[in-house]
Structure formats: structure tokens, C-alpha cells
Amino acid sequence: MVKKLDLGDYIQKLSNLYAREKDYTLEGDIRKNYEYLQKLSNKDFKQPPSVKVLDSEIMHLKKYGNLKHDQIFEFVKIINYFKYLKSRNWPDLAEWFDKIKIPDEIEKILKHYNEKGEVIGFEEIDLINERIKEKKSLIRQQLYKYLNSKKLEPFLVDRQIHLQQGEETLLVRGGFNKVLDAEILGRSSSGFFYVFPRGIEKLKKQLDELESIKEEKLYEIAKIFSETLRKWVKFLEFINKEFDKFDALQARVFMAKNENLEFIIPSFKTKKMYLRDFCHPALKECKPINLEWDKQVLIITGVNAGGKTMLLKSILSAAFMSKYLLPMKIRENSLIPHFKEIKPIIDDPQNVKNDISTFAGRIKEFKEVFGKENLLIGVDEIELGTDANEAASLFKVIIEELMKKNRIVITTHHKRLATLLAQNEEVELLAAIYDEKNQKPTYEFIKGTIGKSYAFETAKRYGIPLNIIQKAKQEYSEDLEKLDSLIEKSAQLEFEQKQKIKELESELESVKLLKESLLRQKEEFNEKIEKEKEKLLREYNAAIKAAKEAIKAKDIKDAHRKLNEAHKIRSKIKIQKEEIKKEFNIGDRVKYGNSVGTIIELKGKNALVEFDGKKLLISKSALKPYLAPVKKTTKIYKPKPDKIDVKLDLHGLRLEEAIEKTEEYLNKAALAGLEEVWIYHGMGKGILAKGITELLKNHPLVKEFKDAPSHMGGYGAKIVKL
After folding, report:
1. What residues does each domain of the chain span?
2. Are the beta carbons of 538 and 573 closer than 8 angstroms?
3. Which of 144, 201, 482, 582 is 20 to 30 A (C-alpha) from 467?
């Protein structure tokens, strides 16, 4: 998979950041892992130390074996690293790190190792180390005496002490034995001898004895430590597994930070794939891919060497990287569906070893995906290795079967298969664009059409002689050229017709829904009016009855009391006014603050409104219907612009709040006629700065922007020209 998608170097770069060897997969719930990645991305921490795989050591403990000190120290490094993480006191990660409780007995073991893995804190060992140090010093002094010896001087190669087989030695020429009794421990590449003088063998023997005693003591300590660790082997298994889990996440976080990459979690709720400015990791000079694909099949056609295969690999790579939460160069508002498996059918399977034809190998790969579901299948040059016309019919049926449960991306040069499949509503066409004027591919793509291969033009571009190309054009008959042209035009017309039919059906459905809605509202309104009438009638009858009783009253006080009761009943009668909810349509006149404009496009919860030639994207909730006052004389209405400050301060806001506030501010600044504004976002961790910079890069109202001078905010502010 990694090799087929050209991700080998990328995965190796990730592996280099691991504390110990592992593959690119992640264990556990993907949503929880994504949450941890987001939290760790906002934190500063040191990377874990290099650690060995400890599965065999844990098994050795379970079988009542004893570990050596270097093996024990590997566990010590892991536990000490988690102690460091726990000391950071991160509240949002407490649920994870609080589960790691280090037993007191193991805490005691940790104190007996220094950063180099040497055993410390034992008086006997410390005394032996001191004596070893003394003996080594005496041996070195004796060696220096030999180096300064007049007798030995003619035989010395240099005046240095050399380490050979772990022993300190002298490097001498042949014939040294005439003046020095010594043991030969080795020979240099130049033929000289590494020797150890026998005159200091007594010191060497004493040193060896001390080393032997030290080893015995260390063995006893290791045995005691192993017994303790065996009692807590379940804890060691747990923390070893947690370390691998953290290691896999930290490597991703550091890779994302080092290269300014993003994490995209796959969506389980949609099949839409929206790639925004995606770059394949293998491309050094990448032309970012922007793709919207929401159908079952995507067929990529067009010019040779125009980027078809790389686009296919990019689509599969983006899905692969999202599936395993690998950081990628992409905009964070991209959308990638979740796939159970990603299956690239890309390479030519034919070689000397496997004794299989190209076509047979391809068919074998297709057989493997039948019966599976929720796969993303990528097929490069689908008719490879067989007759194009037969393959078109065969693969049409195969693709139609596979697309029932899977998504498929195909590249092809053959128009017949693309034409056959294009009749299916769940098939989308994408053609590589060729710059005919400059005779080279643009590495851009256009939806809804079948592309031309430009084989002759490509051959010319790569240096095939013109006379050869001319002969080939003559061989390629006019009839075939016309047929190709008709196929392309037919596919284009069919696509346009389908689009028009879909638009008409959509409009018809909208009209039907609107009609049903209006009828329902009318019925509800009539029913509400009838109920309101009945209620008002009852209330008025009660008031009239109370008034009549006042007239019949025997004295004035009683009459006043009855009239007051009637007045109270009357005052409680309220006529409800129906609030009319305004649905905005294209062409409506609306107010935004003190400005009046016209809606020219509706986009979900937002509307694109034109104010005196300026187009602003504004939330519908911020708009009010505008009814122009009826006057006898014609008068041009010119709104009074809102008073607005030339400075916007975003300090203390979250990124979403800051972006929303900036967009609203830019709209108002444009309406007020400001040509230059200042936006203060601060530096901090760089989250606001990055988000605001990306917004300004793509905002239609922004002509240009730059960092403010140092005395006016520097990197923490932007000067924006509108």
C-alpha cells in the first residue's frame, strides 16, 4: 500500500520520530485519538527517549527469569517519562495520565539508576567503583611511563593510549619485544601492534577482580529488582502499551509541528470527499489539489503526463492518511469519508517470477474486492494489457457491480469505457486540461467531460522527430479522429442535458414543496383564525354580560363594581398579531445596518449582497427586509455609512470568534468606504495569526495585506488594504 501510493519516504520520516520501532497504524477509538492529537498539538513537551521493544523482557519475567540492568533501565526510562508527563499537570489530559499510578516499590527502583543507566545508591557498589577508578588511574600512569621511556621510543608509533578490545594499550612497531615484555591484543590496518605491558599485569588482575566483584553485586541487585518487577508485571504490561500509544501520537504531533501539517479525521456520516489545497507528500513542487467528489465513481481522462495518475494517488493517499490520522498538507475545512479499506490497483503485475500476464493480474486483483464493501478502489489505466473495446464492455459491468457498495477512482485514455459509464448518474467525469497554445499539460482538471489524450502532442514535446509524428497522424485516419471528436461532444452534450434535467426537476420539486407548504400554512392559518374568533366571541360575551348586570344594579356602588369587572374582562382581551417570517429570495432589497443592498446569491445560512457595486457575504440573520418609502417625487436613497474604527482588536478571542468578527468588520469597513484598516491579533501560540492570515489571503474584499511595523505591533498585527 505505502509503496504503491509513493508514501515510503513519508512513512520513514514518521518512523524516525518514534521512540521505538512500530508501524503507522493507531490502536483504539479514532475519535479519541483525534481528540488527543488536537490537545497535544497545543502543548510544549519533550520527545520520549529511545526505548527498546520490551515484549520478550515481559515474557521473561512471567517465566520467572531475571533481567539485566540494561533491560530494567528500559522500563525505568518509560516510567520516568510518564512521571514527566504527569508533572505537566494538563487538566484536559488528566483522564489519561491519572490512570497511570506508579507503585511505591517501583518508585524505589527508579531512584537507583542515573540518566546513563548506571546503578547508584548502594554503598558497596560506590566503594567498588572508587577502587576501580583508582586502579584504572594507576594503570594509565604506568602506560604513560612506557610512553616516555627512552628504550621504547624507537618502537612507538605515537604517544597515545589506544583502546583495543576494551583494554587500554600502546601502539608499537615490530621488534618491540627486544625492549618490552608485553601481550599482543591486536594489529592495526597498517600492520602495527596493540600491546599491553606485562609489567602492569598485577594492577590489571586487581582491576579484573574488582570488576568481577562488582558484577556479582550488580547481579544480586538485578535479581532483587526482577523479583519486584515480577510482582508488578501487569503494571509493566499496561505502561508499556500506554507508552506505545503515546509514542504513536507524539510522533504525529511533532511531524505536524515541524512541517505545518493538518490532521483530518474521516467522516462516518457522509460519502462526500472535499479536498482543499491537498499536496501529496512525495511532490516537492506541489500544485495543490482542490476536488469535490460526492458520487460513487470518478473517471479521470485526458492528456498523457497531465497528472491523472498523481491525482488518483493523491485521492487514495488523502483517504489513507485520514484513516490512520497521519498529518498532511491540506486545509482544515477539507472533508474525507471513512473507508474500511483502501485498495490501489496501480502497478503492472507482470514479471518474470510470477508468470502472469498484465491483464490476468489485473483481473485477479479485481476478484479480491468482490463481495467487500465500503472500499476506496483506485485503478490506474484500467484497460491495461488487453483489447480496449472488449475491456470497455467487461469493465463497465465490473465497475457497475462494485460501485453498489464501494467508491472507485479510475484513470483511462480510452473514451469508450468513459462514455458507457457516463450514462450512470453515480459516475462523475474529470478531464485533464491541456494548454494547446503552449503545447503542455496544465495539471488542472475540469468536471463533466471526457478529455483528449493529445498523444501526438506529447510525443512531439518529448522529442520524437516531426516526420515520424506526421506519418502517425496519416495512419490515424480522419474517420477515427472524427469518431473521437463525436464521442467527446456526445459525452459533453449528454452531461449538459442531464444537468439541465436535474436542475428542472429540482426546480419542479421546489415548486411542489412550496405549493404544499402554502396550502398547509393556509389551512393552519384559517384554523387559527376560527379558534381566535371563538375565543374573542366568548370573551366579549362575558364582558357584555358583566356590563348588563351593572345596568340592572340596584345602587351606584354595585353598578360601579359590576362595570369595573366588565372593564377587567375587556382589558384582558388581546388580539394576537401573526408574525410573518420573511424568506429571502434573489433580487430582494435588504438592510444591513444603515446600508441597503440587493441579494444576488443565496448560500445556505448566508447571502451574497451587493451594496453600490461591493459584494459582501452576510448571514441571513443579520439582514432585514427593506421596503422603500413611497413618495410622489423620485429621490435616490443614499445610506449613511456606519461610523467604524480603523482598528480591530482580536486579543483574547477564540479562532472561530475572531474569524467571524473579522469578516463582519471587513464588511462594515468596506461599506464605510475605508481603504486601509489595522487588525491586531497578537502573537501567542500563533493560532490566531495563522487563522487570520489564511482568511485575509482568500477574502474578496482584501487587495493586499502585510505585517505591521515593529512599533505598531509587528508580527502581532496586519495592515489591510481594501
Report:
1. 8-103+232-259, 123-202, 273-470, 502-572, 581-640, 643-722
2. no
3. 482
- The Cα–Cα gap between 131 and 213 comes to 11
Residue 405 cell numbers, joined: 457498495
Q: Which residues contact 11 (CB under 8 A, 6 or more apart)?
A: 2, 24
* CATH superfamily of the 273-470 domain: P-loop containing nucleotide triphosphate hydrolases (3.40.50.300)
547: pLDDT strictly greater than 80: no
Counting Cβ atoms within 10 Å, is residue 592 exposed (0-12), middle (13-18) or buried (19+)?
Answer: buried
581-640 sits in which CATH class? Answer: mainly beta
- 424 secondary structure, DSSP code: S
Task: Indicate the Cα dihedral angle 252, 258, 259, 261, nearest 10°.
Answer: 40
Other CB atoms within 10 Å distance of the CB of residue 298: 23
Of 3.30.390.10, 2.60.40.740, 1.10.10.10, 3.30.1370.110, the CATH number of 643-722 is 3.30.1370.110
Tens of pLDDT, residue by residue over 241-291, are 999 999 999 999 999 999 999 999 999 988 899 999 999 999 888 889 999
| Cα–Cα distance, 379 to 399 (Å, whole number) | 11
Q: And the C-alpha cell for 439?
A: 503545447
Q: Which of 71-85, 482-496, 582-596, 650-664 has the highest mean pLDDT?
A: 71-85
- Given a cut of 60, is residue 541 above it in pLDDT? yes
- Assess contact for 452 and 418: CB atoms under 8 A: no
Sequence-separated (6 or more) residues with CB below 8 Å from residue 668: 593, 642, 644
Number of Cβ within 10 Å of residue 609's Cβ equals 26
Q: 525-529, long-range: CB within 8 Å, 24+ apart, which pairs?
A: 525/578, 528/578
Instruction: Check residue 635 and give its pLDDT.
Output: 43
Say how many Å lie between the first and final Cα of the chain, rounded. Answer: 48
- Mean predicted confidence (pLDDT) in 572-580: 52
